[in-house]
């Protein structure tokens, strides 16, 4: 477990600090660490001030009171300034690191359709959006907090360890007729006390790592379920599905609460221990230093300085105890991110068995194509055919026979298959799914997707009129959730407007007119043939009216067999 944690941490940590930004990043981090070291120096100065101040009080030296108050004020103001900027610049490092790491994960997630393949191949990769948006932020924040805190406490230990050693003097322990002298006894006691506390903290709090991991997962599942209802609110409303959705909410929320109760109970035990440990550390140095003070070997100022130095040393040595909950959270975050990283690497390395080639000519060719499901059930076997430019092919077959999967294979996003798909050199393709994707933003952006929104308003107005959406001309630059505003039929017509703007050579339609009535469906197909006469169309559909818009039928039986046949013109 420890080895996996350290390996996962190093894999996540090293990237940014060895990137193209490494020198600026390292310089800024070094400056932040330097500020923390200087802050430790100020704390040592304040510790020495305790000696002078309390000795002045004990000696009734009124003339030293106000100068010492002024000295403390200067040290305190400088300490505040350093502490504030140390945190501010640490947050600057955090922003830069998080930006770089987020861009790296987004790049991996979007490359080679990993975001799609994760759903097909790695169904146990839950909530990738949360891992990118929240887990990366937590990893960067907690890592910097622990790293800088550890270095500061290590410096504090070195500085105040020397102070405490010098103040402790010697402690004589009589054993029979012999006496043993322990030099720097308070330092050694602090070391033993903190080591024992660290071991006990681990024994008490080690279950927090798994509980924090589960808590993040359950919270994300609960949030995702609500997002699903919001995205499909109309369907839920039509089905009157409030009751089963409410049951689903309660089931997922119950897991959140159940795990949180376990987290609370474990945290309660750890807090009992940590607070008891901290309170005991307040009285221990007084008890240990009291014999020397009452024997006259130490003045009041020395006593207060010793107590302060013991507290600093004990805090430094107890850093692991105080930070155990934070380390547990970091371990859970690292586990989620490394799992996500591993899954993305796995699916990106899987080679698509279907080769997608471009050759000279004007034909779409399938060469010994085989398409199958993840369970190896064959949907299409040994399919070899050619479709010329300007042809209109209709893919038919019963539900579940593999029609949409064939289009995924032609698009190059379905990894389960063998053979070749050959496209004409330089040809442009566009695939329209049954439910068009409309990105967030303006209607203009939705129309041009996936291209950049660059073009004349006249061209946009023309295509909107052609598809019967002229009522939206005045709303081209309105920013809204257009997938919620437009009906499915309007979204499908907008997708046809997108085809007219992109002007592809090959158009693949996966039931892209399912929400349109038959006259409107006929109008859309005739529009494509009129405006893009050189384009080829490959459609998937169930309606018999589609036969009139195509000249070739590719029928899939669902058991791997297929048949290519012409459609009589009278149909």
What class would the helix/strand composition place it in? alpha/beta
What's the mean pLDDT score?
Answer: 84
Shape: elongated
Q: Give the oligomeric state of the chains in this entry, treating copies of one chain as homo and distinct chains as hetero.
A: single chain
Per DSSP E runs of 2 or more residues, the count of β-strands stands at: 14
Walk me through what this model shows.
It contains 18 helices and 14 strands. It has a 6-stranded mixed beta sheet, sandwiched between helices. A 4-stranded mixed beta sheet has the order 3-7-4-5, with helices on one face. Strands 1-2 form a two-stranded antiparallel sheet. The mean pLDDT is 84. The chain is elongated. The chain has helices at residues 2-17, 22-58, 62-110, 114-121, 128-168, 185-205, 208-231, 233-239, 242-294, 300-317, 319-322, 324-349, 403-411, 443-448, 457-466, 482-485, 488-502, 518-531, and strands spanning 170-175, 178-183, 354-359, 363-372, 378-388, 392-396, 417-424, 429-432, 441-442, 479-480, 506-510, 536-540, 552-556, 562-566. By secondary structure, it is an alpha/beta fold.
Features:
571 residues; four-stranded mixed beta sheet; six-stranded mixed beta sheet; single chain; alpha/beta; elongated
């Amino acid at each position: 477990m420890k080895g996996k944690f350290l390996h996962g941490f190093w894999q996540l940590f090293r990237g940014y600090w060895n990137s193209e930004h490494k020198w600026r990043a390292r310089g800024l981090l070094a400056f932040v660490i330097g500020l923390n070291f200087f802050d430790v120096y100020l704390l040592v100065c304040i510790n020495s001030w305790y000696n002078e101040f309390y000795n002045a009080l004990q000696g009734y030296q009124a003339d030293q009171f106000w100068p010492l108050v002024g000295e403390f004020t200067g040290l305190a103001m400088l300490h505040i300034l350093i502490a504030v900027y140390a945190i501010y610049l640490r947050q600057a490092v955090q922003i830069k690191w998080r930006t770089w790491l987020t861009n790296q994960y987004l790049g991996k997630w979007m490359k080679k359709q990993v975001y799609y393949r994760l759903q097909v191949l790695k169904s146990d990769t839950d909530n990738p959006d949360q891992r990118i948006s929240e887990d990366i932020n937590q990893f960067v924040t907690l890592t910097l907090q622990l790293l800088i805190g550890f270095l500061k406490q290590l410096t504090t230990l070195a500085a105040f360890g020397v102070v405490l050693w010098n103040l402790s003097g010697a402690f004589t322990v009589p054993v029979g007729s012999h006496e043993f002298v322990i030099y720097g006894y308070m330092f050694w006691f602090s070391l033993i006390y903190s080591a024992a506390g660290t071991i006990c903290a681990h024994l008490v709090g080690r279950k927090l790592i798994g509980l924090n991991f589960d808590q993040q997962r359950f919270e994300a599942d609960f949030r995702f379920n609500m997002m699903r209802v919001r995205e499909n609110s109309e369907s839920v409303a039509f089905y009157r599905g409030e009751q089963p959705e409410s049951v689903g909410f309660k089931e997922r929320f119950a897991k959140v609460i159940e795990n949180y109760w376990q987290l609370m109970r474990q945290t309660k035990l750890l807090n009992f221990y940590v607070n008891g440990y901290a309170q005991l550390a307040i009285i221990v140095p007084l008890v240990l230093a009291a014999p020397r003070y009452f024997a006259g070997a130490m003045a009041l100022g020395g006593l207060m300085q010793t107590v302060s130095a013991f507290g600093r040393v004990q805090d430094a040595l107890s850093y692991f105890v105080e930070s155990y909950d934070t380390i547990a959270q970091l371990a859970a975050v690292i586990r989620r991110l490394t799992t996500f990283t591993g899954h993305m690497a796995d699916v990106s390395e899987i080679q698509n068995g279907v080769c997608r080639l471009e050759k000279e000519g004007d034909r779409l060719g399938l060469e010994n194509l085989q398409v199958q499901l993840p369970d190896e059930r064959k949907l299409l076997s040994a399919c070899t055919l050619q479709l010329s430019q300007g042809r209109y092919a209709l893919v038919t077959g019963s539900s579940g026979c593999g029609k949409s999967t064939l289009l995924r294979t032609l698009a190059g996003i379905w990894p389960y298959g063998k053979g070749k798909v050959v496209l004409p050199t330089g040809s442009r393709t566009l695939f329209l799914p049954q439910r068009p994707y409309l990105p967030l933003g303006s209607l203009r952006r939705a129309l041009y997707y996936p291209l950049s929104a660059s073009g004349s308003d006249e061209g946009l107005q023309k295509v909107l009129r052609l598809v019967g959406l002229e009522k939206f001309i005045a709303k081209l630059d309105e920013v809204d959730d257009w997938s919620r505003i437009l009906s499915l039929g309007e979204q499908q017509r907008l997708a046809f407007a997108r085809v007219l703007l992109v002007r592809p050579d090959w158009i693949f339609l996966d039931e892209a007119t399912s929400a349109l009535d038959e006259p409107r469906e006929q109008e859309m197909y005739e529009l494509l043939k009129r405006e893009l006469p050189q384009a080829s169309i490959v459609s998937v559909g169930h309606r018999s009216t589609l036969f009139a818009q195509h000249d070739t039928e590719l029928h899939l039986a669902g058991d791997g067999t297929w048949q290519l046949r012409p459609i009589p013109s009278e149909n």
